[in-house]
Specification:
The chain is α+β, with helices and mostly antiparallel strands and 401 residues long. It folds into two domains: 186 residues, Phosphorylase Kinase, domain 1 (2-Layer Sandwich), CATH 3.30.200.20; 201 residues, Orthogonal Bundle (Transferase(Phosphotransferase), domain 1), CATH 1.10.510. The chain is built from twelve helices and 14 strands. A seven-stranded antiparallel sheet has the order 13-2-3-4-6-5-14. The longest helix is centred in the N-terminal third of the chain and has 22 residues. The radius of gyration is 21 Å and the shape is globular. InterPro entries: Kinase-like_dom_sf (IPR011009), Prot_kinase_dom (IPR000719), Protein_kinase_ATP_BS (IPR017441), Ser/Thr_kinase_AS (IPR008271), Ser_Thr_kinase_AGC (IPR050236).
Length: 401
């Protein structure tokens, strides 16, 4: 999550629901040293305030705090998002439930595929490790990630092809298998794991594809465009002009991301642009490709196809997968899915062992956060009301054996 740039401010297009940015984090794949031999550890307990320890704050959003942390029973290093159950958080309850629902779907799908011999891995999607509610807090737990792609500029085409291939796989699985449109794809919502894989995160603005309404909506008096759902500059033209935002909008956002990662600049916004300027650029300004003169013709063609303003003419994900750019690498898709293609190396500073350093109990950290929101006490136990119990999730990696 980190410091929030302009790209980090998203809208859900509704005055009823707010938004919680997702955990900024990546998979460690290993155990943190706890001073106790793994074989001597007691069996993992039910996920709760008692079974999690928090280290340094690694992100702060409008509604929550994100900490590097550790599951005390397994030693697994992870990211912990803590959201006080204030009135503000209640307004984003739908967003949090979507976050939890999609995260669990991804986790369960990865577990199923992992148990089937010969099955291709599910690429490009961050999965959830845990979720629970106390009377005062909402807690979400994910893999811990080393960075996001907002800090990356001007990748060479081989590295870009690997990352973008994983993103296409992730968005296609989200659309075709899980039935959701993301609606907030952007570089800061794409995380890099410690072993170099790209993972899409932040599912708080997803919408079921079955609920997408393609009927143009009337503008309110005095308005000449819709705000749309998501982050300005990544919202598609049809969302601003017609109030329509389906899977085609995710394809548009992928095109903007690809342009930015390939050239280092945003195709439709500059620093200091206001909302009307950005929307006007997206909806009406011809795409300027002058900064793409150093790109290969095949990459140039892919970008143009993804950024066609007419959503019906815009390339589909299948079109993108069949472009010549990917076929510059023999058997690209097969080798990507079965792991024969190696991810680009990350800077050494990012891949150091994910130690958590000094930790405090999550209850202690939660107490400090909650005190600033007017809470007097922190309850260790998870909430037992029916709706809160339904929110609970514990990934098998953290589950009692």
């Amino acid at each position: 999550m980190g410091a929030m740039s302009n790209d980090d401010h998203a809208s859900n297009g509704s005055s009823r629901n707010g938004r919680v940015g997702f955990i900024r984090g990546v998979a460690s794949g290993g155990r943190a040293h706890t001073g106790q031999a793994a074989d001597d550890r007691p069996p993992p307990r039910k996920l709760s305030m008692e079974s999690l320890a928090a280290a340094e704050l690694i992100g702060r959003g409008g509604f929550g705090h994100v900490y590097r942390g550790r599951h005390t029973d397994t030693g697994k290093v992870l990211a912990i998002k803590l959201i006080p159950r204030s009135d503000k958080a209640q307004r984003v309850k739908d967003s949090l439930w979507r976050e939890r629902e999609v995260g669990v779907c991804i986790s369960e799908a990865k577990a199923r595929v992992g148990g089937q011999a010969g099955s291709s891995a599910i690429l490009g999607l961050l999965h959830l490790l845990g979720a629970f509610l106390t009377p005062e807090c909402i807690v979400l737990v994910t893999e811990l990630c080393v960075t996001d792609m907002a800090a990356i500029r001007c990748l060479d085409e081989d590295d870009l092809r690997f990352y973008f291939g994983e993103l296409i796989c992730g968005v296609r699985y989200l659309h075709d298998e899980l039935g959701y449109v993301h609606r907030d794809l952007k570089p800061s919502n794409i995380l890099l794991t410690r072993d170099g894989h790209a993972q899409i995160a932040d599912f708080g603005l997803v919408e079921s594809i079955s609920n997408v309404n393609y009927e143009p909506k009337p503008l309110r008096p005095g308005r000449d465009h819709f705000r749309g759902v998501g982050t300005l500059g990544y919202i598609p033209p049809e969302a601003h002009l017609l109030g329509v935002q389906g899977p085609e909008g995710d394809v548009w956002a992928l095109g903007v991301i690809l342009f930015r990662l390939a050239t280092g600049i945003h195709p439709f916004r500059q620093k200091g642009d206001d909302e009307d300027t950005v929307v006007g650029n997206v909806a009406h300004r011809p795409l300027t490709m002058s900064s793409t003169e150093n790109l290969s013709i095949n990459l140039y063609t892919l970008i143009r196809g993804l950024l066609l303003r007419d959503s019906e003419a815009r390339w589909t994900l299948r079109n993108a997968m069949n472009t010549e750019w990917f076929f510059e690498i023999s058997d690209f898709w097969e080798r990507l899915r079965d792991g024969r293609l190696q991810p680009p190396p990350l800077p050494r500073a990012l891949v150091r062992d994910p130690k958590t350093g000094h930790t405090c109990t999550l209850k202690y950290v939660a107490g400090e956060v909650l005190a600033s929101h007017g809470f007097a006490t922190v309850t260790i136990e998870t909430s037992e009301c029916a709706e809160d119990v339904a929110f609970y999730y514990q990934h098998p990696d953290l589950s009692p054996k």
